[in-house]
UniProtKB/TrEMBL annotation:
Name the record gives this protein: DUF2236 domain-containing protein
InterPro entries: MPAB (IPR046366), MPAB/Lcp_cat_dom (IPR018713)
Molecular function via GO: oxidoreductase activity
Ranges of residues in domain ER-bound oxygenase mpaB/mpaB'/Rubber oxygenase catalytic: 48-234
Amino acid sequence: MAKTLWRDRNESLDPETDYVEIYQNLALYEFTWDLTQALSFALFRTYAVPSIGRLLDETGAFTRAVQKRYDDTALLLEAPFVHGFDSESGKAALRRINQMHRMYDISNDDFLYVLSTFVVVPKRWLDDYGWRALTDTELRACVNYYRALGGHMGIKDIPETYDAFMHLMDDYERAHFDFDAGGRRVADSTLQLMTTFYPRPLRKPVELFSRGLMDQPLLDAFAYTDPGPVVRRLSVGAMKVRARLLRLTPSNRVPTYTADLPRIKSYPDGFALDELGTFPVPGVGGCPVRHDASA
């Protein structure tokens, strides 16, 4: 039950060949809550790129059925690292993702940016709010995992290192972050959904807390009001206290799967991966990114 259990186990593995297992250990055991939050913020950042946020708004998937879209995204992204890219479940999830992506023709650059957020935002989240940072082995495994995921989706020119992903994300945001009414609607809908994961009296504080963790360029892109220094200090302070407390707890020995989380509400009776997501229907869109390769 040593607190270093998963770090030690990951350090015994090779990030060049065992990256799926390392990522699985991080996501299912060591940092389940942190990675869930970080990836939610990662996706949230993508709405601030008008070409992404506007099209997501036009599809309606993130405004008319945001709970289902949230659930489907989380469940489909989980399958490859739980079961492996070459497993039946992993292939089913990738096939479904690629089918949705082909519904729209968006630049490879936009999807490279989305992929970069999956690599960079969780690392920065753990640096700032985790009970420990990722080791070099774990960070390399995360890079390799998302390089493999991007390859299965047909993304071109994927960076090879964390630093390259980081520069890609930061440069893309500086060049493309801007206000768009559609992106703002998607952001509002998603932020409102996040508050429903908590009891009603806490929903306004949760919304303020979330804005307190947003950087200024992101707030500006959505034309969100800065919550102010007091809210920022309280939000960051609460996360730091949580991290200190977690250092005193034993390592988790029981995996936590996405379907077991209370915030996943769309499938109380179970689900089939090949039935998740959106399907081609006249007037109704799906995911805003097209890819060229099948799973």
